[in-house]
Amino acid sequence: MEWKKNAVGRLVPLEIDGKQLKPFEGAYADQGGGRQTGARICAAASYRDKMLKSIDEAIDACKIQDGMTIGFHHHLRNGDILINLVMEKLAARGLKDLVLAPSALFPTHEKLVSYIEQGVISHIEGSMNGPVGRACSLGKMKKTAVLRSHGGRYRAIQDGDLKIDVAFIAAPCADSHGNANGLHGPSACGPLGFALADSLWAERVVVVTDHLVPFPCFPWSIEGGHVDFVVTVDTLGDPSQIISGTTRITRSPTRLLIADYAAQFVRDSGIMTDENFSFQAGAGGVSLAFVKYMGEMMREKGVIADFVRGGSTQYMVDLLENGLTRFILDGQSFDLDGVRSLRENPNHIETNPFVSYNYHTKGCFANRVKVSVLGATEIDLDFNVNVNTHSDGWLLHGIGGFTDAADAQVTIITAPLVRNRVPIVVDSVTSVTAPGEMIDVLVTEYGVAINPRRLDLLDRLNKSAIPVLSIEELHNRALQMTGEPEKPQFTDRVVALIEFRDGTVIDVVRQLQTKS
Amino acid sequence: MEWKKNAVGRLVPLEIDGKQLKPFEGAYADQGGGRQTGARICAAASYRDKMLKSIDEAIDACKIQDGMTIGFHHHLRNGDILINLVMEKLAARGLKDLVLAPSALFPTHEKLVSYIEQGVISHIEGSMNGPVGRACSLGKMKKTAVLRSHGGRYRAIQDGDLKIDVAFIAAPCADSHGNANGLHGPSACGPLGFALADSLWAERVVVVTDHLVPFPCFPWSIEGGHVDFVVTVDTLGDPSQIISGTTRITRSPTRLLIADYAAQFVRDSGIMTDENFSFQAGAGGVSLAFVKYMGEMMREKGVIADFVRGGSTQYMVDLLENGLTRFILDGQSFDLDGVRSLRENPNHIETNPFVSYNYHTKGCFANRVKVSVLGATEIDLDFNVNVNTHSDGWLLHGIGGFTDAADAQVTIITAPLVRNRVPIVVDSVTSVTAPGEMIDVLVTEYGVAINPRRLDLLDRLNKSAIPVLSIEELHNRALQMTGEPEKPQFTDRVVALIEFRDGTVIDVVRQLQTKS
């Protein structure tokens, strides 16, 4: 195996499982080139009746075989039952070596671990959560997993790096033509954009719905002209888990302080301007508090944002309904207010990874966002960020939209200095998800550190009350609290590639050396 | 040159200008196969600023060279000035042998004839109107023109048969990212769908607007992620001609009678049912009257359509606003009411040739339409229809959406038996645009003729008051009125191919032998 040191100093292989790999060369080094993959040319005359009676009929019709790649989206989040259902049926048929290509997985998908152990699933390309990530860390996958960001997944499908044979699209609302959206029905989940690339390029596309409506189902987030088959099922999942309700503002004083510092930073640094203001924040407790504080500061200063980027939450919806933003550009709904607003408010706009996050386009929305507030498991002295593994080496998270959203004009990482007696600010991250050149500010409960590449931001803070420290100071303070942490022990085996949004390899994850 | 007789009995060449051709084999014979063309892989980092100061800067930036193919759309109709403006600048640069690929041309584009004569334009792929069609009939184009339907043009671009080097997209409303729609601004024209394929596959895409709005311009009928450059101009055209105002109901008693017969046919044949009713009709005088009569009959019988298909007009909008249809699915707006309704009514939905008309998809809307009412220049004893040439041999019209819309479950041709002392029902059409197998009914002022393939429709008319005749009877009656018409004299040279929606050649147009 040949290795090369990439632009963040990590050794990465040039080939794995017979696939050529390109080392990461810098956040904006990739200049494109070549052609996208061409979808299958089909004839409309063969698609007059797409309705099938069951998932089994769809599996038959799609002629699923050993080794095929199966795509799923994650808009139903922890309420999804389709992935388990389909994989159970494929396992029961004795299929082997399937590649699972979900846009994300959740704790509810823990049973996939047994399919990995049985060889039904050879590996995962896309995203992994706790239990499945843990299996990957233990070396249970036959081949090397590939972690991609939401934009990176779209790019990989578009460019032909990830060839999906059959995509199953859980559709809360659909018609017999296959037009589908996530706005209506008992499983309403908001946007369906994570399934867009699957619909455009998968060889076979199956729309599965528990709410069939007369043609035309509109809006058609998924266009029927890309859909082979439509199947109705009794239910797509557990609505109470689809919109998880876990998206509550943190009550931790430490985390509230971090959110407050982040909002103050945006205000005091002059980013929160009358014109061209926009921001993105996720659904974690700190992010929600940040959105709330941001709203209060905007109201106080009379600032109206051009747009805010979801995942949408009630706090985002409040901004829209109170006139503090012109638009919500929403990639996924995290709570019921998000779904309702998307359905009812014409200025709450559904987006997808093509318009939002794809690097291989003629521009996407990511770098039009003025400030992006993101979490991390680790950040190091070079401002490199890890969101995939923990300091103990376990692979427990997907990339989500991290690397894409970090393309914002100012990217802020919010994190407590120490989490469970482990420092978050480290000398060198366990895995690099995003390069330090994309990260501008770290906000902790002890104050903010500005990336030395952004001295312009530092200058703007001279009238602010927020404590400003160097990242080295924060690192030292963390070490004073925890002592030098123990490093995890890995074997040589690479169990996962961390792919940057342009398709290059920014780091690898190695199998954990377990004591048992 | 090798020739072959195709499925409608026309001799067509197997190769022309070095391109291999496939003869038409039947409306639903094509089964697809192969892959679509892959768009260029671009890098977002190169698209941070797309704004250019002028059309000239855009021409420079796109590096337009001799022989390139330039795409345009026709939503601005006879009010468009962009095509003339761009071609004038390209001519002034001394460029030669350009291929013009407009989705349609109008009388305002007559000056293109001089660019054809000068060799600036080698030929046209797409659509031609009166003056440019006339030039084609006279053999003035260096290479063979290709006539395509709206769906056929999308298919050809998607499949790589028509490679557009640079697309100029006239956009009544756009932002600096290139997101664009036709809903707002002084040149508002309604949908922008005819430019969709250009945006997806052209090597370079230039959005030209006279109404730049702050990001995000929504809806984004054209997505900025596909756009290379954005140019602002003072005006895109003459608003009074964009929405032409020519879409008035006929006052001719003969034509009103035809429209009335067509509506009666739909009612009496039982097509106008409580469930699953839908129809499509164009913007001609007969079509408008048909829509009005249809509305009256629907109201009388308490029928509500699932949808009606535009081109939208005030008569379509009346149906929507009066609750007689759930939706308008609209490909282009023909009048101001259409534009206003599309902007204001969420059930007035913008469509494009992909969802509506493309044959090389997993199904499009065309065959979900219950009844389609279309005009023609000729129809023959086999029910083959000509919409391109007249009986005197002149090529004067594009295909428009004809061949696509003829995929409806029932396709009705409305035509007077005789026009300007020339029979419309002929023994054999001058050119075949659509095969008789797609045409179910001919409605004239003397009554209707049913295609013998549709005896089911004939049976349903036994209680109707509409006169039913055979097409031979109608033909004979026409001949009695006009005598046997003189046939045009052609040279051997093929000046245009008439392409069927699947990419096969259904007929050719030959150069006219002129007496002068």
- As an assembly, this protein is homodimer
Helix fraction of chain A, binned, reads 25-40%
Looking at CATH, the homologous superfamily of the largest domain in chain A is: Glutaconate Coenzyme A-transferase
- Largest sheet data of chain A: 10 strands, mixed
- Supply the CATH architecture of the largest domain in chain A: 3-Layer(aba) Sandwich
Strand content of chain A: 15-25%
Detail the poorly predicted runs of chain A. none
According to CATH, what is the class of the largest domain in chain A? Alpha Beta
- CATH fold naming of the largest domain in chain A: Glutaconate Coenzyme A-transferase
**Whole-angstrom Rg of chain A:** 22 Å
Strand order of the largest sheet of chain A: 5-14-13-10-6-7-8-9-29-30
Shape of chain A: globular
Mean pLDDT of chain A: 96
Our measurement of the CA-to-CA distance between the termini of chain A, rounded to an integer number of angstroms, reads 29 Å
Q: With helices defined by DSSP (H or I, 4 residues minimum), what is the helix count of chain A?
A: 15
State the total count of DSSP E strands of chain A: 30
Structural class of chain A: alpha/beta
Largest interface, Cβ cutoff 8 Å? A-B, 58 and 58 residues
